[in-house]
Every structure is written in structure tokens, then in C-alpha cells.
Design brief:
- The complex is a heterodimer.
- Chain A is globular, with a radius of gyration of 20 Å.
- Chain A is 40% helix and 23% strand.
- The two termini of chain A are 34 Å apart.
- Chain A is an alpha/beta fold.
- The longest helix of chain A is centred in the middle third of the chain and has 18 residues.
- Chain B has one domain: P-loop containing nucleotide triphosphate hydrolases (Rossmann fold, 3-Layer(aba) Sandwich).
- Chain B is 35% helix and 23% strand.
- Chain B contains nine helices and eleven strands.
- In chain B, a hairpin with a 2-residue loop joins strand 5 and strand 6.
- Chain B is globular and about 55 Å long.
- Classes of the chains: A alpha/beta, B alpha/beta.
- At the A-B interface, helix 7, helix 8, helix 9, helix 11 and helix 12 of A face helix 5, helix 6 and helix 7 of B.
- The structure holds adenosine-5'-triphosphate (2 copies) and magnesium ion (2 copies).
- One adenosine-5'-triphosphate sits at the interface of chains B and A.
- One adenosine-5'-triphosphate sits at the interface of chains A and B.
């Protein structure tokens, strides 16, 4: 495997008061590699978006550091930071909040192009916008003059992705990029992410609640609970042979049309959920390799 | 047979444009029975949210409902309600969890204040009573009452989504509309919330109009499902039939484009 272009090295981040701390990241370490996708799944509120925000430098680590091309970002020059910002782009969880309601779609894509490729003349820029829209499977002629409120949720998310691509990034952090898209469109976006990874050699961090889509795009996967990565490694190995109780719980709750809700016993399962939650919330510094490229932080069953 | 809670007949909705109008909902008719869990699925942009907004009378220009369309809730003509009736109708008759619910909370109010706002507008309730009720409602969606004093930005996306659901249940509506209510949640919490809503609906007897792109989930929770394509309702049937023997080619295609958790992966086919 190539070296990580971007890595978190033992990063911790805590929110809230000292007597009621919220552990959003607890000694989190992982690397993103060109041409590979790493999926991050887990409990809502476990710290997935926090990891994204740490990468986007919206939050600074309480402990630990970010490494870009192997060098600590904390000591980087202003120039290196600028390069970092252009190289790392984010696609957000909510397409409704991500776009500016007062600007057209054309404007949303034109702006990053102007900043990133100032040499393009207006004709070339229009061609680039058309190419981006076609990439995300939208009709350029129809969409360019529209405003965000005139689009459906799915159409808006595709605009966010096109905008991230506009600056030719090397790393894309996608936080729930397809959660508001219906299945057939979602598959188009997932294929798009796969193509970008393969053709442009992008390193992707794919944050999702939809584990089946993680399997579709990611070579590696991490499962997070209360700020801690409790299980990680090769996607196929983790999903077919989960070892951590929380991962097992998560996988058992994946929607399954063959199991009606009304047929399942609710309260018993809930009791078990509470136990797993309490146990998973405790810090577990120990790491165990359970298979080739497959690790857990063990907890008592 | 009992009268339906929601009855939609020949619903046509246009978005009025400068040059030409866009026919977003085309002659849609369906009913939801008391206590029924009805799922609505379909392509992004097919008009699901437009229908949801019309049913709760929250549609705004340029959306225009054509003459001849009919929406009845509990037998009452929703499209004929005046402002006064509308105020009473919202939250009590129909409550809606929006697609962008996690951003629909007021950023400058604590969670407690947002519950109080809704409760005091419809009931005579003291601040202390509202607080107790809010704490109960939060427990329903698995959030600690400690969070009452938090502001929205201090909560994760999934927590905000659950808070909105709790606010919607505050006034025991007859019909709960949920537009992609759990997309922001992990599957464990999603399952807990929907199973809880399922239990409440059986206890309290309200009906649910559930919009999601997650067909697997939809089949798990819904009694009946409607599939929409470009503004039209192309197939309505009980959930198991939609899953096992879908009739419409589009429904079949939807099933074929869902990535699999185990076994052989679907192929890149559904690229269009
Ligand atoms: N700015 C902040 N101030 C205080 N607490 C915060 C802040 N940002 C995040 N948190 C808390 O940190 C925890 C992790 O939040 P985060 O948004 O990273 O979760 P997440 O895994 O992305 O959840 P979801 O799946 O619901 O989006 C949560 O408990 C959240 O309330
Ligand atoms: N204010 C508006 N002005 C013009 N057209 C609009 C407006 N709002 C929505 N539309 C169009 O109406 C159609 C239906 O939109 P709607 O939001 O109901 O779709 P949806 O089925 O909820 O999609 P999604 O699953 O992406 O949320 C879309 O093609 C959209 O572009
Ligand atoms: Mg998040
Ligand atoms: Mg919608």
C-alpha cells in the first residue's frame, strides 16, 4: 500500500464541561491513501463528523496531530497550509445547508474554478462547469441558471459533489454524501466516487450510516463508538466476521426487508443494546489483531 | 370500513415558472387508514416532499395546487382551511418531520424552549409541566433529559433529528408525516426510533406517512407502500408484494440498484 497522504495520529478531542465530558475523539489514528476509500461508520454522535472537522481544521486536536504527506501539520508554513486547504475538500451531510440560496448553480461552480484555475477564460470556464455537471449526471443547460431551492434534495447533493471536484482535490472527505439520495441516484454517486478514486487517484474518507454502501466503495472500514474506533480493517473481513459486540449490533440492525419490525422482540434486544453501549463507551487502549488487517479494541462480552 | 385518516384524490401540483410551469405531482390518489403505516418511495425529485408539504398545507409559491385536487384529513378538506383553522390543524392533526429537520430547530433557543413554544401555542401548560413533558418525549427518542438545556449546535445531527421527532409527537397528532426522518441516524438508533414509533402508533392510534429512499427499511416498517416516478404514483400495494413481486419495471429497477451487505455485490449496471 502507498504511504498515507493524510493521517490522524492519536488524535483526541473532548467537548463539554470537565465534569460531563463528551469524548468526540479518543486516541483516533488512521491514514488515507491515494486511490483508496476508507469508510467510517458508527453510532450517531460518536464523533464521525468531528473526525471530518479535525481534518478540515475546523477543530484543533486536544492531543495528537495531523500528518500531511508524513509531515505534522501543526508546524506547517502558511504556504503548506494553503496547499493543504486546496487538496482536501469536503462534501457535507446536509445538501440543504451546504448551498447558498441567493446564488445560481452556475455561480456555485464558477467560484471555485475562478480561484483554482484563474487562467481559464469564460468560455473554458463554462465548458468546465458543463463537464462537472455532466460528471454528476445533471443536465448542464437545465441546471446552470437554477437556484438551490428549485432543486430536490438529491439534485442539491450532486451540486455539492461537483463543487468539491471543481478544485481538483487529492483528498475528499464525504460526510453522508448520499444519505438524502434515493437508491438509483445513490448508486450513480457511489459509482462516481469509485471512478474518481480509480481515475483521479483520490483518497476518500467516506462517512456513512449505510453499511452496504460502505462495502460498495471502501477497501477498509472503521467502526466508531463514543469517540473510539472499536473495530477496523479490511471491509470484507470486518463485515463478514465482526468481532466487536457493537459492530455485531450495528450489522444486525441493518434494514432487512425479510424481517418485519412487528415480528421482532423489542424489549429484550433493547436491554442488550444498553449493555453493549455502556461497555463500548469505556476507554479500551488495548488493540488485538483478529485476522490479517482486521483489528478490534476488545471488551468483555 | 372506517374512514381514512388521509384521503388524496387527483392531486396535481405545479411549480409556476417564469417561462413554463413544472408539473411536479400528477393526478395522485391514495388513502391512509387509521393506524396505518404508509410508505412513499421514489426517485429523487419525483415529488414526495411536494406531496408531504401539500398535505400539511406548508406548500408555498411557486407551488400551486390545481383546482380539482382534493386532500381530506379526518374527512376535513385541508385545502379549504382558513388561517385560524390551519393553526389548530398543524401539530394537532398533522405533524411533519421535514427532510432537513436537523436544521429546522431554532439555533438561539435551548431544546427546552423549543418544546415550550410548541406546547404553549396549543395547550394551557405551565413552564414546569412543559419541562416534564419535554423530558418524557426526549426519553421516547432515547435522549437524556440533560439535553434540555443544550442548544442545537451542541447536539450531533442525529440527536437534532430525534429532537424534532419528539417535538412532533408532543400534541398527539392523527397523522405523522416523516420525510426522510432517520437518514441522519445510525441503523441501531434508527431501528430503535422506528420500532418505538411503531409501538406508539399502535398505542395511540395515529397513522404515519413515511418517506424514505431506504426500500429495505420501508418494507420492514410499512403496511403499504406507494412508488412514485416523475410525479406519478406508479404502484401502490402492501409492503410484501412490493418487495417480493413488484409489478412496475421501475420498482424492479429500484431493488436492483441497492448495494448488498453480504454475498455477491450488485454490478455497476444501474448507471443511468
Ligand atoms: N461544537 C461542539 N460543541 C459541543 N459538543 C459538540 C460539538 N461538536 C460536536 N459535539 C459533540 O460531540 C459528539 C460527536 O459529534 P459528531 O457530530 O462528531 O457526531 P457524528 O458521529 O457525526 O454523529 P451523527 O452520525 O449524528 O452525525 C456529540 O456528542 C456532539 O454533541
Ligand atoms: N420551489 C420550487 N420551484 C421549482 N421547482 C421545484 C421547487 N421545489 C421543488 N421543485 C421541483 O419539483 C420536483 C419535486 O421536488 P420534491 O422536493 O418534491 O422531490 P422529492 O421527491 O422530495 O425528492 P428528494 O428525494 O430528492 O427529496 C423536483 O423536480 C424539483 O426540482
Ligand atoms: Mg455527523
Ligand atoms: Mg424530498
Amino acid at each position: 500500500m502507498s504511504d498515507a497522504i493524510l493521517a490522524l495520529d492519536n488524535v483526541s478531542k473532548t467537548f463539554g464541561r470537565a465534569d460531563k465530558p463528551v469524548y468526540a475523539a479518543r486516541s483516533v489514528s488512521f491514514g488515507l491513501h491515494p486511490g483508496r476509500t476508507l469508510a467510517l461508520v458508527g453510532e450517531s454522535g460518536s464523533g464521525k463528523t468531528t473526525a471530518a472537522r479535525l481534518i478540515m481544521r475546523e477543530y484543533t486536536p486536544d492531543e495528537g496531530q495531523l500528518l500531511f504527506r508524513g509531515k505534522p501539520l501543526g508546524k506547517a508554513s502558511a504556504k503548506a497550509l494553503k496547499a493543504y486547504r486546496a487538496s482536501v475538500q469536503m462534501v457535507f451531510q446536509d445538501p440543504f445547508a451546504a448551498l447558498n440560496p441567493t446564488h445560481t448553480i452556475r455561480y456555485h461552480l464558477e467560484r471555485p474554478l475562478r480561484l483554482h484555475q484563474p487562467k481559464l477564460n469564460s468560455k473554458e470556464r463554462t465548458a468546465a462547469i458543463e463537464e462537472l455537471l455532466t460528471r454528476v449526471k445533471l443536465d448542464p443547460a437545465l441546471l446552470m441558471p437554477k437556484y438551490p431551492h428549485e432543486l430536490s434534495g438529491g439534485q442539491r447533493q450532486r451540486i455539492s459533489i461537483a463543487r468539491a471536484l471543481a478544485v481538483n482535490p487529492q483528498v475528499i472527505v464525504a460526510d453522508e454524501p448520499t444519505s438524502m439520495l434515493d437508491v438509483s441516484v445513490r448508486l450513480g454517486i457511489l459509482n462516481l466516487l469509485n471512478d474518481m478514486k480509480a481515475q483521479l487517484g483520490l483518497a476518500l474518507l467516506y462517512i456513512t450510516h449505510d453499511i452496504a454502501t460502505a462495502r460498495y466503495v471502501a477497501e477498509d472500514i472503521m467502526v466508531m463508538y463514543a469517540g473510539q474506533i472499536v473495530e477496523w480493517g479490511d471491509t470484507e473481513s470486518v463485515l463478514t466476521n465482526p468481532q466487536h459486540p457493537y459492530t455485531r449490533l450495528l450489522l444486525s440492525a441493518v434494514p432487512d426487508p425479510d424481517r418485519r419490525f412487528s415480528d421482532t422482540r423489542f424489549s429484550e434486544e433493547l436491554n442488550r443494546i444498553e449493555f453493549i453501549r455502556r461497555q463500548s463507551a469505556l476507554p479500551r487502549p488495548e488493540t488485538r489483531e483478529v485476522a490479517n488487517n482486521h483489528f478490534i479494541r476488545p471488551m468483555p462480552e | 370500513m372506517t374512514d381514512p385518516v388521509l384521503s388524496i384524490r387527483n392531486l396535481n401540483i405545479d411549480y409556476i415558472g417564469a417561462e413554463k410551469d413544472f408539473h411536479a405531482v400528477k393526478d395522485v390518489s391514495f388513502d391512509i387508514a387509521p393506524g396505518e403505516f404508509f410508505g412513499l418511495a421514489g426517485e429523487s425529485g419525483c415529488g414526495k416532499s411536494t406531496i408531504a408539504f401539500a398535505v400539511s398545507r406548508l406548500h408555498r409559491p411557486p407551488a400551486l395546487i390545481r383546482k380539482g385536487s382534493q386532500i381530506l384529513v379526518g374527512g376535513r378538506d385541508v385545502l379549504a382551511l382558513d388561517d385560524n383553522e390551519l393553526r389548530r390543524f398543524r401539530w394537532r392533526e398533522v405533524a411533519m418531520v421535514f427532510q432537513s429537520a436537523m436544521n429546522s430547530l431554532n439555533p438561539v433557543l435551548t431544546i427546552e424552549a423549543q418544546f415550550y413554544d410548541v406546547l404553549k401555542a396549543h395547550t394551557r401548560i405551565s413552564r414546569a409541566e412543559a419541562r416534564t413533558r419535554a423530558a418524557e418525549l426526549l426519553k421516547l427518542v432515547d435522549i437524556s433529559p440533560d439535553r434540555l438545556s443544550s442548544y442545537p449546535h451542541q447536539c450531533s445531527g442525529g440527536m437534532r433529528q430525534r429532537i424534532v421527532i419528539a417535538i412532533c409527537l408532543a400534541l398527539n397528532p392523527k397523522l405523522l408525516i416523516m420525510d426522510e426522518p432517520t437518514t441522519a441516524l445510525d441503523v441501531v438508533v434508527q431501528r430503535e426510533i422506528l420500532q418505538r414509533i411503531d409501538v406508539f402508533r399502535k398505542e395511540l392510534g395515529f397513522s404515519v406517512l413515511f418517506i424514505t429512499h431506504d426500500l429495505g427499511l420501508m418494507v420492514q416498517v410499512s403496511d403499504r407502500i406507494g412508488i412514485m416516478l416523475e410525479g406519478e404514483l406508479v404502484e401502490v400495494n402492501d409492503a410484501q408484494t412490493i418487495y417480493r413481486t413488484p409489478q412496475h419495471a421501475y420498482t424492479k429497477r429500484l431493488w436492483a440498484s441497492m448495494p448488498k451487505l453480504h454475498g455477491e455485490q450488485i454490478r455497476e449496471g444501474a448507471k443511468s
